[in-house]
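During the second year of the project, the team shifted from modelling isolated chains to modelling whole assemblies. The rationale, set out in the original proposal, was that interfaces cannot be judged from single-chain predictions alone. As a representative example for this report, we include one of the complexes processed in the last quarter. Its constituent sequences, exactly as entered into the pipeline, are reproduced here:
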Amino acid sequence: MTDMSDMGETESAQKVRTEAAAWLERRQRPEWSADDQAALDAWLAAAPTNMVSYLRVEAAWTRANRLGALRQPMRDAAALPPRRNFGRFLSMAAAAVGAAAVIGGVAATYFLMPQQKSYATQVGGHEILALKDGSQIELNTSTVVRVSQNKTERKVWLEKGEAYFRIKHDPAHPFVVMVGGHRVTDLGTTFLVRRDKDRVKVALIEGLAQFDGGNGNEQHATLKPGDVVVASAQKMSLKKETTTDMAEGLGWRHGLLIFKYTTLADAAAEFNRYNDRKLVIADPAVGRMKIVGTFATNNVAAFADVAEDILHLKVTHSEDQIVIAR
Amino acid sequence: MRDDLDFRGHGLAVSASDVNAWFVREVLPLEAALMHFLRLSRRNKGDAEDLCQDVYIRVYEAAQKEIPHPVKPFVFAVARNLLINRAKRDQIVSIDSMADLDELGIAMDEPTPDRSVMARQELHRLEAALEQLPPRCRQVVVLSRIEGLTRSEIATRMGIAESTVSAHLTDGMYALADHLYGAPSKPGSDT
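Output from the structure prediction step:
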């Protein structure tokens, strides 16, 4: 029978847990090598106290992956230091100033000649077009808009992607968004428009807007806050979303993807909008698993970590894709 | 062998990586209750953390042979054994001084909450854990976990040495583990 009263010889928990945390910290560094891994493996194998301490700190750190989810996007933007792509943000601000000059123009040219100009973002891009009338169009990843104005209306075509419109209402110059043949007319509004091929989604956040279906689907609706229209080539539906749901759908404005019981397949599709390195779900059953969490739009690796560490899925990294399987 | 434990025959044979996954999934969530039990039993002698670690070592070693099931009674039986041995060795405390599991409200038949159900509470718990970190340490953790910055990027951003970033990260990892696993959860809460 083993004598179990040998606790006095056990290394103090504090000491070994500190060592475990130090190992984990080193392991996160980019320069972590095969030799380092071998040293860690040896340390883990040396005593169960090392192993349990490491498992504990690693599990806690992995759980902290989901920390992002608890931060409200709005508060997030205020509380956190500038994002990594702040430099890019500055350059877009500069571009936006240029755009404002072109779009708004001075009063004289405004009425004389119609102006049309296209703006596009790359995969992972995010830009804000500031119009001279005080309106703003915020472009999400991989988005193309064409902006035109003449003396009677301001008009934007969303060719693809997603944009958040914050429009200064002006009854003399209605603001119209054309998307996939459908028309959204601002009546003093903040709204979101997204287009994935034939599927169009319009979500009204503040104010009022008129939605007029196109492509032989001549349905009309006056949208109030919380209203969401989803229109495809065949059909159109109108539903209500809560403020929270709306806010989560706007996470991208703060560089965040917010998932709430989202299937892995949908989550992967969302990530793939923002990144060249694509997530591939290799198994339909895996694609149906649901997750809760918030991730930086550009942090596919964190998502893969969660799939591996929490959902215990098999994750294979390669140059241009990350495959998730059972 | 632990002569007063009879959990054999109910477990499942498993691989080493399964033991690790099981330990993280089933044992670590018991830490708050375990620490509470150990602190009371030892009359706050300040060695609860070491005892908890010893419980973990024994539970982990046992699981390498066979995964104990159900896990909660097993973990607390190991803890009770350790306390008895400690009491014998110290020759001071009588076994009666051990905290009563029932009085502590540590229910043995309580199923481990479903992980998907826990998702929301988990976020609150994480938030609380994060709030408890010292400000600089918290900032480093946020930059690392939420922003996904590397050690050198954090050092540049905060204007501190990389070694300082490492020290904050190590401290943060240690503290987060304590807050996430060891922090007492409110009795009767549904976490």
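Residues 86-104 of chain A form the longest helix (19 residues). DSSP finds ten helices and 16 strands in chain A.
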